[in-house]
Amino acid sequence: MHEATRVLRAGLPEAVQGEPFLPGPTFAATFHLAGDPSSSTYSYGRYHNPTWTRFEQALGELDGGDAVVFPSGMAAISALFSVVLRRGDVLVMPSDGYYTARHLAEDYLQSAGIEVRTLPTSDTVNGEDLRGATLLLLETPSNPGLDVCDVTELAAMAHRHGALVAVDNTTATALGQRPLELGADFSVASDTKALVGHGDVVLGHVAANDSAWTTKLKAWRSRTGAIPGPMEVWLAHRSLATFVVRIEQQCRNALAVAQFLEAHPDVHGVRYPGLPGDRAHGLASRQMRRYGSVVAFSLGDKVRADQFLDSCTIVSQATSFGSVHTTAERRARWGGDSVPEAFIRLSVGCEDVRDLIDDMTKALGE
Ligand SMILES: *Cc1c(COP(=O)(O)O)cnc(C)c1O
Fold first, then answer.
1. Each residue of 80-116: b (16+ CB within 10 Å) or e?
2. Does residue 217 register a pLDDT over 80?
3. Percentage of residues in the chain with pLDDT exceeding 70?
4. Whole-angstrom Cα distance, residue 219 to residue 226?
5. Residue 336: pLDDT band with limits 50, 70, 90
6. Where would I find the H helices in 88-210?
7. Residue 333 DSSP SS3
8. How far apart are CA 255 and CA 82, in angstroms?
9. CB-CB neighbours of 222 under 10 Å
10. Measured in angstroms, how far is the CA atom of residue 170 from the centroid of ligand 1?
11. β-strands 294-299, 316-317: how paired?
């Protein structure tokens, strides 16, 4: 079966006469349960839910592993840190990746006796960087700078040093690259972004190629009680039916927008891994199957960048990315990333690209 067909059907139950294709969300704290609790698959809503089970099966098919759903991307990352890392361990992570993950590590792991080392995504990693490492977290393409690193090479190097490897796959999604196939032990993602793609649900997951880890991740989820709501999980599963169609359109639009921006005399520093001239293009072409929906660029200074964003009418100002609606923001307004004041992260949606380019042409002219 080809990808679009597989994704469309992922996690759907066998056809049953008179039943829906995707059964609705199961709202249950308690399930009928007499006698030995192990005689039932479902017992209590903090432990499991059939809506999670179906979605996790779908995520597992997409990532090529065993998946566990969490109520947000950060809940997924913190569960991963919590089951893998112990006092005295070493976490190596990107200095230019999603900043909340870095703050989580610096604010909570360091004080729990875990060493946190940060490295830029585009840097050459050597043995010294990985000495004593327990977990190497990669983020490629990195958010927001869109640098790319070689997952296959880094996973092999980390494994030689006895470290586990996780890839934050949020920007690419499983349709853009499959970290477990590239040698990573974990693929972690914020499904809030392009996977759900409608800007209406916060959700995340971890996929692993060893079910011993997903058993631990599920135990962590049950014990901490950080569980996703069935409605959100069902909405996310429903979104998978259009995932390939959305991503195809978003990637096509993103490339056209990146080419438009690159050719504009006022715009500089355009980054998009799909641009033939991008410094990450060669590597991205080897390890990615699609280049994603996010484009980064800079425009003059802070004032000019804000003027541009204020002048756009179809490109909406909002944070986050991956939605069907095109959005953009001046990333430095948050203060968490070391990016120039004029740096704009643009998330390209499913609109007609002619309208997007028209909108930006006018806004750049003002
Ligand atoms: C948004 C994001 C996260 C966090 O996801 P939430 O769903 O907002 O918790 C993690 N990693 C990356 C790369 C992200 O962009």
1. bbbbbbeeebbbbbbebbbbebbebbeeebeeeebbb
2. yes
3. 100
4. 11
5. confident
6. 99-104, 127-130, 151-160
7. helix
8. 38
9. 14
10. 7
11. unpaired
Mean pLDDT, all residues of the chain: 97
What atom in ligand 1 is closest to the CA of residue 97? 13
**Prediction pTM value:** 0.97
Which residues lie below 8 Å from residue 152, measured CB to CB, with a gap of 6+? Answer: 182, 183, 287
Q: Is 226 helix (H, G, I), strand (E, B) or coil?
A: coil
79 touches 226 (CB < 8 A): yes
Written as six digits, the tokens of 204 are 């995340």
Determine contact, residues 90/132, Cβ cutoff 8 Å: yes
**For residues 339-363, average pLDDT:** 98
DSSP three-state, residue 312: coil
Retrieve residue 269's tokens: 């520093």
Closest CA to 152 of 121, 174, 178, 176: 178
pLDDT band at 337 (very low <50, low <70, confident <90, very high): confident
Name the band, by pLDDT with cuts 50, 70 and 90, for residue 245.
very high
First-to-last alpha carbon distance for the chain, in angstroms, is: 50
Q: How far is the CA of 190 from the centre of ligand 1 (A)?
A: 5
Residue 287 identity: Q
- Strand 204-208 versus strand 66-70 pairing type: antiparallel
Confidence category of residue 189, pLDDT binned at 50, 70, 90: very high
CA dist list (Å): 55 to 31, 102, 180 = 19, 28, 18
Residue 44 per-residue DSSP state: B
Determine the distance separating the centroid of ligand 1 and the alpha carbon of 11, expressed in angstroms: 23
Q: Which phi and psi angles does 187 have, rounded to 5°?
A: -120, 125
pLDDT at 180 over 80: yes
Q: Which residues pair with 327 in a beta bridge?
A: 316, 347
Is a pLDDT exceeding 80 seen at residue 37?
A: yes
Residue 295's beta-bridge partner residues?
A: 346
121 ligand 1 Cβ < 6 A: no
Cα-only R_g, the chain: 21
For residue 170 and ligand 1, the question of a CB distance below 6 A is answered with yes
